[in-house]
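Repro:
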Amino acid sequence: MLFTELGYEAATLNQIAALAGLGKGTIFNYVTDKRDIIFLIFHEDISSLTDKALEGTSSKQDFSDKMLGIAELHYRLYAQNPKLSRILLTEAGFHSEGVHLERFRELRDTLIRGIEQLVIEAQREGFLSRNETASFMARQIFFAFSTAIREWLTTPHPEWRTGLRQYKRIFKMQMQGIGSPPSLGG
């Protein structure tokens, strides 16, 4: 893959098209620009992972086990190719257009809605507080999770078990709170 061999910024659309056996103009039938290619590369894996993550949450596991199961699937996927994963997550945060970026964001939103459903169930069971909306809680859980993955990917040799252990600590703190008195105001 040219992105990992030459570096993401150094790889050109001409080189990518040539490697794919396409003319430079033809490549635009598939992607908006070079940045959109990274989302195309990951789409099938992320789509499959999202389906699997949300299917796995229908079991009788408790909320924490379901969330950690979702996290484990992500850590395992991103550990397969940390260089490309770094590019993907960097571009997802700062890139603003592209067909495949939109598909990636739709999958992210599907995952967040799935987490929201888990929060609703956990609220009904009394495991989670009803002081916040399920939507807000799901986004907060997701953003802490995605930040933990990004930080883990900055390590020289990210190993999924190490990342998951660190995320478990973060998730536990989320569930227990950090002990600050509720004096921050509305």
